[in-house]
Each structure stands twice: as structure tokens, then as C-alpha cells.
């Protein structure tokens, strides 16, 4: 929803009603994840996507119906074995969406949500998407931050329990569907709530104001990272050289990183790319990087010769072999990259693979599921299209040698 939020709020502030469709649950090889959204405005224009194309036409019509009736609707899309012309997902997955009319009357707290997201403050929205309880109205919202709660889902106890669970999801940066009893009992069947988390975007910190850093910054922004380029050399670390980066900082890398850690602005989602391949910058920066939380991606550029020399220097400074297991060096996947742009793709591809547990191999060589851990059955099988209840039960880089000569 983050990508359509500015336009959604613009219509909201103009007093218009918009049809907002949000992915709330996925099973199998669904193309979009929970939280993905599309909006249909009063003039018929559309922004965003919930399926990558498979069911967008049906969702567009659904949003029109919801805008006309004023009543939210939930819908499920999957493979329809008995009707080849029915709307469904060609990938074999199952997609649950929730479509609601959004206006100042139906969602008065939307402006607060938009301001928090714009300011990169953590915030989450809990929405009732199904209810058999008369006090929990479908479409009601509870907006919460780590310290505040506004709105209501229909009961004090329900609001309290959902707020606790939603804050847990917000800490993880995850969105999910939760179920409760009529009085807020966890794991009940009366009320279904979708929690949409808007955690601040993950950070990418690029050390070294070099040409490769500019390309990596552009790729990082494309992937949704908040990108900082840092270098101690003010002549190189300038805004015109890195227009895509959110921040360009002149400071010694190790000093800047430790200050950011002390300020609580480095977490397990952070990616650190050390691209200077100069020992006086790299070694102290990597020493500081090894002090970051587990899960932080740490990569360093350089040839194999540079890599071996770097390992020797780090060990001389007291870095342990356990620390060194966190280091991706030479940085990136083996794509045969040569240009800065190609090398940037190699680097962000490794970051994605590390984050998601990918192998980096060609998909044509794999016989397992395309999406790791989706636990689905082969495409087209009856098991892959069963009901939600059934589903619920169930490269080293060689390019651095060329880089070293730059």
C-alpha cells in the first residue's frame, strides 16, 4: 500500500471516495504479498496492482461495486478447474483481497497514517475484514504506533489485544491476517483482522563515493531501501554525484556507522556495502560493521587478492573467524558483470538472495518451488487450489578482478 498511499491521500483530502483493494492473505505462488494494494478513483483511473495482471480487471470491477454500494467486500482468486474462462491466477496460487471505500468519513485517521509513513515513523493499521459479531463492523480501522492508538474495531478488549499483536508485527515489519473471538480471544473464529505494517524502509549504507556506489544507490532505491552514501573525502561525496541517494554524508565510515548504531538506526534489515577497496577505509568500516545485529548484510568490493589482504588485516585487528563468516567478499553474484550498472545488479541480487534464502541459480535448473518455503503443491494439482483451511493445515563474484583495475 505504501506505493499508492500518496495518491490515495490526495483523493481523500479532496473529499473524494476511492476504492482501495488490498491483498490480505496469499497461498502458494501468489504474485503479490500481503499489503500490496490498488486504488480505483472516482474518474475511473487505477493505480497499483494486487496480482501483477492476472485478476486486475476483476479487482477493478470489484472496486467499482464497492464505491457504488459503500460496503466493503472480501474476495478470493485462485484456479477454477471447472471453468477455464473464470477469473483466476495462472501461477497456481490463491489470493485473498479486501476492497473498501475510502473517504474522510470511512477512514478519518488516514491523514495521520500518511504523515507517519512520510516521516518514516513506524505505524500499523488493523482492519476488520470479516466479522460475525455485530459490534465489530467490517471495514473499521485501528491505527497504532509504538505509543498511541486511535480508532476502534468495536470493543475495548478487542482493541487492546489487536493492538498488542499488531505492535509485535510492526516490530518485525510484517503484515498478516489474525483471527479473534467475539471478545478478543486469540485464535477465535468470530472476527478476522488484517494488520498492515508500515515499518520504516530498510537501510542501505554504501561506503565509498565511487562510480559503482552511484549505481548501487540507484538499485537500492528501486528496491525500496533508504540509501545513504558515506565517504570521508568531501571532494567525492557530493549530492550531484549521487542524485538517487537519500543522503550523502561526509564522514569516516566507521565513525558514521557506530554513531548510527548508537542512535538505533541500524537493524537486522540493513545492508552495508563497502565499495572503496582501500584498507584505510575498509578495515575500520568492516570492524564496525561486525558490531551490528545478526542479519545485517555486509559486503565488500575487491578482487580475490584484495579480499585475502583484507582478511589478513582484519585478523590482525582482532576480528574473529566467526565475524568473518558474515562477510560477503568479493561482493555480489557471478553475473559476468563489467559496468557499474551491471555490478550493481550483481550486488543487489546477492542481497536479495541472502535476505530471501535464494540460491542464485537459474530458475530453469531448479525443480523445487520458485518461492522458497511456500510449501505449495505442484501447479495445477487439486491440492494447490483447496480451501484456505486446507492450505493452512498443510555465486562467488569473478567481476571484481576487473573492478580492481579501475
TrEMBL record:
Positions of transmembrane segments: none
Location of the XdhC- CoxI domain: 12-78, 117-181
Ranges for domain XdhC Rossmann: 204-351
UniProt biased composition (Basic and acidic residues): 385-397
Domain of life of the native organism: Bacteria
Residue segments, region Disordered: 360-406
InterPro entries for this protein: MoCofactor_Util/Proc, XdhC_CoxI, XdhC_Rossmann_dom
Name of the protein this chain belongs to: Xanthine dehydrogenase accessory factor
Originating organism: Gordonia rhizosphera NBRC 16068
